[in-house]
Structure formats: C-alpha cells, structure tokens
Amino acid sequence: MPTVGIIGAGHIGSAVARGLVARGYDVVIANSRGPETLSGLVSELGENARAATTRDAANAGEWVVVTVPLKAYRDIPAEPLAGKIVLDTNNYYWERDGRIAELDEKRATTSGLLQEHLPGSKVAKAFNHIMAAQINTDGATPGTPGRRALATASDFPEASALVTELYDSFGFDTVDIGPLGESWRVERDQPAYVVRQDRDELVANLERAAR
Fold it and tell me: DSSP character for 3?
C-alpha cells in the first residue's frame, strides 16, 4: 500500500489517518506545532504511522491530504507536492479564517485557492462535507440501500478517480461534481453540506446549490 502524507492533525485529519491505517496504508502526519506534539495520536495509530514536519509529510506521501484551517493554506509547501495528487478537505469559516475577498465575492472556491497555491499539484476536493466522527462510522458496503454519498471535484480526472476509490474503500458512493470551479456546490451553507444523503439526494442537493 502507498504511503500517504497528511498535513493537519485536527478532527478530519486524525479521522482520515485512522481510516487509512485501518486499511493498510502507511501514514506520515504533520501539524503546525511540530511532530513531538503528535506522540499520542501516533501511538494510537500504531506502527504504520509516524509524525513528521509538514515538509517531510509532503515529501513522504505518494499522495497527500491537506486538512488545515483555510487561513493557513499558504503555509503548505508547494515544491515537495509538485506532481502529486493533493486531497483538500478545507472549508471557509470567516469567523476563524478572517475575511477572504475572493470567496466572499464568489470569485473563487476554497479548493481553487489551494490549486492556485500548488500549481504543480493535482488538487481534488475530498471529505469536506462530512463530520469527522462519521468518516469511520457511516460507511456501508457497495449496493447497500441508502448508502451515503460524498462529492469530489478536480481539474484532473486521475485525482477524482483516486478520491472515488478512497471513498469506496471507506464505504461511500461518489458523486463527481466536475472541475474545481464547481466545488462551491458542496461548500459551507449549501444544501449538500454536512447532511447525510445517498447518491440521488446528493445529486439533487448539488443542483439546488446557489451562489
């Protein structure tokens, strides 16, 4: 199994790390406070996980999950992520992140901002509209009636395909929104945001979205 870098060890990052380790991935996880602050989490995750600096996690991952507060996205190192698929879980909370004019004026998307910051990477939206506690509990086997669905978006088909494969392994159906420019449909305050929905319901909620 590949090694995955996770930049951000908050609720989402930790939940994704737990799910990946349970599925046999090696995980290298980082946060803004330094690897020494992650000893408890790494001990919980077991021998397939280690803590590192942000740059080391970016270098180590064959693909990387970025799951930091949006206000910190410019701190993500671009050079070690060049050529890699980067999964972005970010959401815009102006109360935490401060006002970002491009988002307030609907001229950009959260994942689009990260793609601009990482021009050599292939960014895909992932795990942004599900509560952290549900990532490892709400999955179901393929074909289960009412199986929960999650959305992705990317300008790169191979990145969307990776998210689709990952969602399926976690027990979720996938709805591919299309390019990153459409990823606003699953951002905060839209109908599809952090509600439990199957594929048909998610499609309907994406269509109901309004900027």
Answer: E
Number of alpha carbons in the 13 Å side-chain half-sphere of residue 105: 4
Distance CA 149, CA 29 (A): 26
pLDDT at residue 68, rounded to an integer: 97
Mean pLDDT of 155-165: 98
* pLDDT of 1 strictly over 90: no
Please tell me the distance from the alpha carbon of residue 67 to that of residue 64, in angstroms, as a whole number. Answer: 10
**pLDDT of res. 16:** 98
Find where tokens 């601009």 sit.
Answer: 116
C-alpha–C-alpha distance, residues 200 and 157, integer Å: 22
With tokens 């307030």, the residue in question is 104
Average pLDDT, the chain: 97
DSSP state of 6: E
Burial of 122 (0-12, 13-18, 19+ CB in 10 A): buried
**Cα(19)–Cα(181) distance, rounded to whole angstroms?**
28
